[in-house]
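Hi R.,

Here's the chain you asked about this morning:
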Amino acid sequence: MDLIRIILSIILPPVGVFLQVGLSRQFWINVVLTLLGYIPGIVHAVWIIARTPEGQTLRA
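And here is the predicted structure, written out as tokens:
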């Protein structure tokens, strides 16, 4: 399932993050990063997908 999320993250980064963590703070950070630059959004999305177990949110 992570492979599908990563592919979606390359096409539209917030979708991959949404599928991983839902409407959390990480999703909104990714939306802002994607608006500021497509590449930072992709990097952040892949990072979130690789680091976060499915269904959990990151706490900072």
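One quick note: The first helix runs from residue 2 to 11.

Cheers,
M.
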